[in-house]
Design brief:
about 950 residues; alpha+beta; 18 helices; about 40% helix; elongated
Length: about 950
């Protein structure tokens, strides 16, 4: 291999095998054909027609591609057959598709092993050969491209010096063996400009069959199903898992019809024109949306959604780049799920901000591409839900899905075969009924009946998107759900705080209960109650010397609904007197320590009435403590215990525990056992508490003093019980009042929330007012470690007053809201949202109807003008027909009387010629009203034209009257 150098530096070589390697980028054969179509479509060639055909040349199947573009010079075709040369630029807004300078090489070598290019540019004619067979036959070490250039004015005159060697190589290694055959192919390029490409040695499958099917449809080139579904061959467009294959994947005609977003070139496939379509305007229920990606500095990209009117199985996103289709029917978002969401919906977007791959069949998998696909899925789901929502709202009884109904495109567009401009047809005209060749002069709309008139303007991207009523309603419902959830959470939070508050109150009450018990025990007042009586008294009861006896036990709570716990009582009266034992009167029944009740109880003979005046609990405690210190008395229940000496330790009373408190109730205990108060510490041979003294003198005085002390202690005890009983009642009353106020606050909050929801659309804001429940709890619960209940009672009173103030504020706010509600009742209603939507819809319908009315008025004016002209012509034609009829009758009469041997021409022949000419003129006039009328097939000797004229006149008269 001879190394080529430039200034002593070796140049990179290009192996001939690279032609095949480069072609493998096209895994789908239609993408290779699209590369050749793009070269003719780009602004440097600017072809108006492009022919694709299959032909036989010397019993060899070939593909031919011909265009009527600008053609190429010798240097241009040399760059085309080389690699990486691309200097295409936009011309008059026409942006080129090619950008890499590799499309022709990869596309042509993907279809076949050899390609021959014929081109004319008005001055020269060139022929270039790109052939793998030629390179293999000559054992070339580099890619060699023979190019022959002739002068177009003087055929067979070579222009370049190396053309002779190139001509010999082409004649030896191509399908054409003579110069005459080459010039015949140049003549096949119609006109002075254009290019023709012939590709042979077409690609075959591993089984030897052609990868193209030319026989199933003689006007199409298709990929057989066994080739498309063959997993061993990498000849697929894209993987479509569990998805029906669109027709564009295996039909070249269907693929070419959507290849460009707005086609500017006619494609004639195997002799029949491809009916290209404006895919963004040939859908049903069209809606436009905007996508503003962050990486484009908030520039909006227009997205068009609609339903496929041909097949509901072909749906997805059509993604274009610079007007060229890159990905077809790409399913996104809800269309990927195993449900019916998104079925039949087609989206169209031009992604000029993304970068396509080299084969122009996909985009580079970048972060921008992933974000675009994700947002396309969101936009598609919004459109799907919006169509469903509107359909259900308009017709709630219609259960047939939109994709299963028969649909027609919202608009009908057709392309002129002469100027290639797109025209919008009036509603009611089926594009399928139009002739194969359609021109602007056949347009029913007189405003766009000339090729000189510009196209209708495109939609402005700045226009607002479709009205997303479903999304707005969903956002409103979601906001209501979030608010309801928030209110529920706040309600649960308040309940939890209330529960915590009540728990603290109960704990504090229990703690105060324990403190009270401890204080009573410290003051040597102990109460023990036996569970059962050992034996009935043997002697009659004795009097109690006027001292009250403890007969029952009551709870500190004022609620008596709970079942009282009773103890077995002895069947004696309240004044039973126990027999003496060792000279002591026993006023209590004997009991074992294990039989003692564990509740703290204060027993008394009769219930103590509520004191009329408030007592100072601290003072009572001090006085009680001082008196007990003086007397050293204590209360206990004993049966026959003998007096003990001062040095002996009295038996400890069983420990007591408070009754468990309920949620809002206290346990209530009752017993009728009557223990006896006795002095635990006394001199030897002491005095009985409940009986008379044994001796006289000092002993009697001691007994009297002891009884006085006991009476005072009993009075102090009664006062303490009354105070505690009153405190418990007040506590329960405040607890009930707190609960009642809490319920009122909750009801007010609910009403305020309902009013807020009703006035939300009127922007009446309301901030819910919540009660500080922690403060309420602090008012009910006394301070921890307090020695009295009076401080807690004062705090409760202050918190209650605070609650009253807050309640007054809530009532004022409630009155304000009621006034606001009454003020807004005249201008608002619960159905404001529906009324607003209905008014908006009516306004839109009114605008649309106004536009249609103006359009109809304009058409009526045009029809009136046409009617007047046609009526005048009709009168003239009728007059001429009457004259001709009279002449013909007279000539017929004269002809019957004249001799047949005159030899002069019959006068009826001239009249027949004049009638024929008149009918031909009328036929030309009728073509403007009946575009499908073929004048070449009309028999002017008959009355066909007369009948058509009468029908047209009747229809025009009917239209003008309506």
């Amino acid at each position: 291999m001879a190394v080529r150098t430039e200034q002593g530096i070796p140049l990179s070589a290009l192996c001939p095998k690279f032609l095949h390697t480069n072609s493998t980028s096209h895994t789908w054969p239609f993408s290779a054909i699209a590369e050749l179509i793009d070269n003719a479509y780009d602004p440097d060639v600017n072809a108006k027609q492009f022919w694709i055909d299959k032909t036989l040349i010397k019993e060899m199947e070939c593909l031919t591609f011909t265009d009527n573009g600008n053609g190429m010079s010798h240097d241009t075709i040399h760059k085309m057959l080389s690699f990486g040369f691309s200097d295409k630029q936009a011309i008059n807004g026409h942006v080129p598709v090619g950008m890499y300078g590799n499309g022709f090489k990869s596309g042509s070598m993907r279809l076949g092993k050899d390609a021959l290019v014929f081109t004319k540019n008005g001055k020269t004619m060139s022929i270039g050969l790109l052939s793998q067979t030629f390179l293999e036959a000559t054992k070339a070490e580099n890619i060699v491209v023979p190019i022959v250039t002739f002068c177009q004015t003087q055929p067979l005159r070579l222009v370049t010096q190396d053309s002779r060697a190139s001509l010999d190589a082409i004649l030896q290694h191509s399908l054409f063996r003579t110069e005459r055959e080459l010039t015949a192919e140049l003549d096949a390029v119609m006109g002075k400009h254009g290019t023709r490409i012939i590709i042979w040695n077409l690609r075959k499958m591993s089984n030897g069959k052609m990868e193209f099917d030319f026989d199933t449809d003689k006007y199409d080139i298709r990929i057989p199903a066994d080739v498309l579904d063959n997993s061993s061959e990498k000849y697929k467009k894209q993987e479509r898992h569990e998805q029906s294959v669109p027709e564009s994947d295996y039909s070249l005609r269907a693929y070419c019809s959507i290849l460009y977003l707005k086609p500017r070139m006619l494609v004639i496939l195997r002799g029949q024109k491809v009916k290209t379509q404006l895919i963004s305007k040939s859908l049903a229920f069209i809606a436009k949306d905007n996508y503003k990606p962050s990486f484009l500095n908030n520039k909006s990209v227009r997205i068009t959604f609609g339903y496929n009117t041909k097949s509901k199985e072909q749906y997805g996103i059509l993604m274009y780049h610079k007007n060229r289709l890159i990905k077809a029917y790409e399913r996104v978002g809800c269309q990927l799920k195993a449900n019916n969401m998104g079925v039949g919906v087609v989206g169209v977007i031009e992604c000029n901000f993304l970068k396509p791959t080299h084969n122009k069949q996909d985009f580079d998998y970048t972060d921008e591409y992933r974000k675009t696909i994700y947002n396309l899925g969101i936009k598609l789901a919004e459109y799907w839900n919006e169509i469903r929502y509107k359909r259900t709202k308009d017709d709630p009884n219609n259960t047939v899905p939109v994709e299963d109904t028969e649909k027609r495109p919202d608009q009908n567009w057709v392309q002129c075969d002469e100027c290639l401009k797109w025209r919008k047809l009036p509603d009611g005209i089926n594009p399928a009924s139009l002739p194969d060749k359609w021109y602007c002069r056949m347009n029913p709309d007189t405003q766009f009946r000339s090729c000189q008139v510009e196209e209708e303007p495109e939609d402005d991207d700045a226009q607002p998107t479709y009205d997303k009523t479903y999304k707005r309603q969903e956002r409103y419902n979601k906001m209501r759900q979030e608010k309801s959830k928030q209110q529920q959470q706040e309600e649960e939070k308040r309940k939890a705080e209330m529960q915590i508050m009540y728990s603290k109150i109960e704990k504090q009450l229990q703690k105060d209960h324990e403190v009270l018990k401890r204080q009573l025990r410290e003051n040597n007042f102990q109460v023990t109650l036996p569970h059962q009586v050992s034996s009935p008294p043997a002697t009659p009861p004795a009097r109690n010397n006027g001292m009250p006896m403890i007969t029952n036990v009551r709870s500190l709570s004022s609620e008596g609904a709970r079942t009282k716990r009773t103890l077995p009582l002895e069947p004696s009266s309240s004044e039973v007197k126990k027999p003496k034992t060792n000279g002591v009167h026993n006023g209590a029944v004997s009991a074992e320590p294990g039989d003692v009740d564990m509740d703290l109880v204060i027993v008394e003979d009769k219930s103590t009435p509520k004191p009329k005046t408030a007592f100072d609990l601290a003072k009572v405690k001090v006085e009680r403590r001082s008196s007990t210190e003086q007397t050293g008395m204590r209360m206990e229940c004993s049966s026959d215990a003998a007096p003990e000496s001062p040095t002996e330790t009295p038996a400890a009373a069983p420990s007591t525990s408070p009754a468990p408190l309920g949620d809002r109730q206290s346990a209530e205990t009752q017993t009728d056992v009557k223990p006896v108060l006795k002095q635990p510490d006394h001199p030897p041979g002491g005095v009985a508490v409940a009986g008379k003294p044994q001796g006289e003198g000092p002993a009697s005085d001691s007994v009297a003093r002891l009884q006085g002390e006991l009476a005072r202690a009993q009075a102090q005890q009664d006062e303490l019980m009354g105070l505690m009983h009153t405190t418990a009642k007040e506590r329960d009353a405040y607890k009930d009042e707190t609960h009642k106020l809490t319920c009122q606050v909750v009801d007010l909050e609910k009403e305020v929330q309902e009013l807020t929801q009703k006035l939300m659309k009127k922007e009446v804001c309301h901030q819910a007012t919540e009660t500080d429940w922690q403060g309420v709890g602090g008012g009910v619960t006394p301070a921890p470690g307090s020695d009295s209940c009076q401080a807690g009672l004062g705090e409760l009173q202050r918190d209650y007053e605070q609650l009253q103030k807050e309640l007054q504020e809530l009532r004022k706010k409630w009155d304000t809201l009621q006034a606001t509600k009454s003020a807004c009742s005249d201008c608002s209603s619960p159905n404001d949202d529906d009324l607003i939507l209905q008014v908006d819809s009516l306004l839109r319908d009114l605008d649309r109807c106004g536009g249609e009315r103006d359009e109809y008025k304009r058409k009526v004016e045009v029809l009136e003008t046409e009617k007047a002209r046609i009526l005048s012509e009709r009168e003239e034609l009728k007059k001429a027909v009457d004259d001709l009829t009279c002449k013909m009758e007279r000539q017929a009469e004269n002809g019957a009387c004249s001799s047949s041997t005159d030899g002069e021409p019959s006068p009826s022949a001239e009249d027949s010629w004049r009638l024929r000419s008149l009918r031909m003129s009328i036929g030309k006039l009728l073509v403007t009203f009946v575009p499908a009328l073929d004048l070449e097939q009309v028999n002017y000797e008959s009355d066909v034209i007369d009948e058509i004229l009468d029908q047209v006149l009747d229809q025009v008269t009917l239209c003008s009257s309506t």
